[in-house]
Write a structure and sequence with these properties.
Number of helices: 6
Oligomer: single chain
Structural class: alpha+beta
Largest sheet: 15 strands, mixed
Distance between the termini: 75 Å
Shape: globular
Number of strands: 30
Strand content: 25-35%
Helix content: 10-25%
Length: 538
């Protein structure tokens, strides 16, 4: 072999090895998913790029979470006195109650299928699963994992003394080490901390959180089905329902439909109300402050129609065979001299060097985008925005506190007859519900005051019950925290029957008390697609 041939072969081998080394990086970047924080009520916090137990590090940089914030893999969402809702691309939803922590352990994409593995570190979460193709969805809490292969609704509670999952609709598979149990509607599975196995029972009756979740599911799903008729066939669902609720669709010749929020005039600028946030994965992102401020700022494009103004168009979603690409902002950045501005992305731009909406330039300031300025300057497209162009509106927050709730609080309504121990949700502690059950009320005629005295039997019962409650509370305090004892989620092997998603259904039914199923039924499969109900709103 000549020297020249040797170097030629060596170069090919080196380049090949280099490309192989780069391939995993490309795969990870290209398979990343970004989902939406679709509702924030009260105190909600977020931690980005979490490693290990997010509650064990008191130096972790928690931030206040805001509506429409993008959520990515390894982010952690937490509530104090608040609640939150998260929407996934295929219409799945996650809801977390007060004093709860939910980790987005795995948000990946594999050949068009969505893999979602969540970890409920503590507290209560409810989940609506609406899978398509071979999507995988699981939630790990405590020592077991709940997997939903078909359309299902289920709730999970994870506290210091144990965990439970209850099925509201559909079927859920509970995985604990090498054991796998299939739960049907109306069943629950409970495992105490440190126990070798769990028990299957009837699901508890619904509470205020369940009713809130059911209402949210009904409204989101109904609005989404109504809005989907204005977009081309797409696997993407998140955010469409808000468009139907907060705006109207207008037919555009040669394009399809355009959307505009209610109550705006022809002078409305789509980027005049929102904030900027910086993410290590996608850089500066525009966060719309309106309830509808997700889809129009990260997908599709903008058209300016004479006599109407700016319209967002749900284009660029493909035919359902390719992933929908997330954009930090649906705008192109341009510069003229020392001035940096943005131009709303036209759906026909397709990487054009000259944006088609260049006649509508919006200068930037530290707070965001201002109103349009007259055209005429020599604007040139820039790939990156200067670092000083924006100021991040992220606000620091403290580490979430350890929850004081226990499994007994979830099963308090199922206390056996004659039991004097009950859980007081307002006081967050166990109390004796029969303290005055056998008390004798004596009214003093001299003072007119009502004086209540207890019999010796009642006082003895009260002392015993309070001592029992104190013992339970003491035992719970010495246990590892719910977050610390969470097992690692299993891999998404999809070993169970993979059911295809059907009609985007609404609502969860009230938790039932159906008997425990003795046989495992195969998961039903349905046709893929969303129902197209309702007429146009113009």
């Amino acid at each position: 072999m000549s020297v020249r041939a040797f170097f030629r072969v060596s170069s090919i081998v080196i380049v090949g090895l280099f490309c192989v080394g780069l391939h995993p990086v490309y795969t990870v970047a290209s398979h990343a998913r970004i989902i939406r924080l679709s509702l924030v009520q009260g105190d909600v916090r977020i931690l980005h790029d979490s490693k290990g137990d997010p509650l064990a590090n008191d130096k972790a940089p928690w931030e206040r979470a805001v509506l429409n914030l993008p959520i990515r893999q390894h982010d952690v969402l937490a509530t104090d006195n608040g609640r939150a809702e998260v929407e996934f691309e295929n219409g799945a939803m996650a809801f977390i109650n007060e004093n709860s922590v939910l980790e987005f352990f795995d948000l990946s994409l594999d050949d068009g299928s969505l893999t979602t593995r969540l970890v409920l570190r503590q507290g209560t979460g409810s989940f609506y699963v609406n899978p398509a193709r071979d999507d995988y969805f699981s939630v790990t809490g405590g020592d077991f994992t709940a997997e939903a292969a078909g359309r299902a609704n289920f709730r999970m509670d994870n506290f210091d003394d144990g965990s439970t999952v209850a099925v509201i609709k559909g079927q859920v598979s509970v995985v604990h080490k090498n054991d796998n149990k299939l739960l049907a509607k109306g069943q629950s599975f409970t495992m105490s901390a440190g126990a070798a196995t769990g028990t299957i029972n009837s699901a508890p009756q619904s509470d205020d959180f369940d009713r809130w979740v059911s209402g949210r599911e009904d409204s989101v799903v109904t609005a989404t089905n109504a809005a989907k008729q204005y977009s081309n066939t797409s696997p993407y669902v998140s955010g469409f329902g808000d468009l139907y609720t907060y705006g109207g669709f207008y037919p555009i010749a040669g394009v399809g439909y355009g959307w505009q929020p209610y109550g705006v005039g022809i002078g409305w600028s789509p980027f005049d109300y929102g904030n900027w946030f910086y993410g290590s994965q996608f850089g500066w992102s525009f966060i719309g402050s309106q309830p509808w401020g997700w889809l129009p700022y990260h997908y599709g494009g903008w058209l300016f129609q004479p006599g109407i103004g700016w319209l967002w168009t749900p284009t660029g979603f493909g035919n359902g065979s390719v992933p929908v690409k997330f954009h930090p902002v649906t705008a192109t950045f341009v510069r003229s001299g020392s001035t940096t501005a943005m131009v709303p992305t036209n759906p026909a731009d397709h990487g054009s060097k000259t944006p088609l909406n260049l006649a509508h330039v919006m200068p930037l300031n530290s707070a965001g985008a201002a109103k349009e300025i007259p055209a005429g300057a020599n604007w040139k497209v820039v790939k990156e925005v200067p670092a000083q162009a924006f100021v991040s509106h992220a606000s620091p927050a403290s580490v979430p506190a350890r929850s004081s709730l226990t499994l007994q609080s979830r099963t308090a309504t199922a206390q056996p007859a004659g039991s004097s121990i009950a859980y007081d949700a307002k006081e967050h502690r166990f109390v004796n519900s029969n303290v005055n059950a056998r008390s004798a009320a004596v009214t003093s005629s001299a003072t007119g005051a009502s004086v209540t005295t207890s019999s010796p039997a009642a006082r003895a019962s009260s002392t015993t019950s309070l001592a029992r409650a104190a013992t339970i509370a003491s035992q719970v305090r010495t246990m590892p925290s719910a977050s610390a004892r969470v097992a690692a989620p299993p891999s998404a092997l999809r070993s169970y029957a993979s059911a295809r998603g059907g009609v985007f259904e609404s609502g969860s039914s009230r938790r039932g008390t159906s008997s425990i199923a003795t046989s495992t039924r195969s998961l039903s499969s349905g046709s893929r697609g969303a129902s197209m109900s309702g007429g146009g709103r113009h």
